Amino acid sequence: MSNHALYKNNYDGCPLTYALNLIGGKWKLPIIWALNKNGILRYNELKRNIDGITNMVLTQSLKELESDGIVNRKQYMEIPPRVEYSLTNNGKELIPALKALAHWGEKMKKEPAQ
Question: 41-42 and 82-87: which strand pairing?
Answer without folding.
Answer: antiparallel
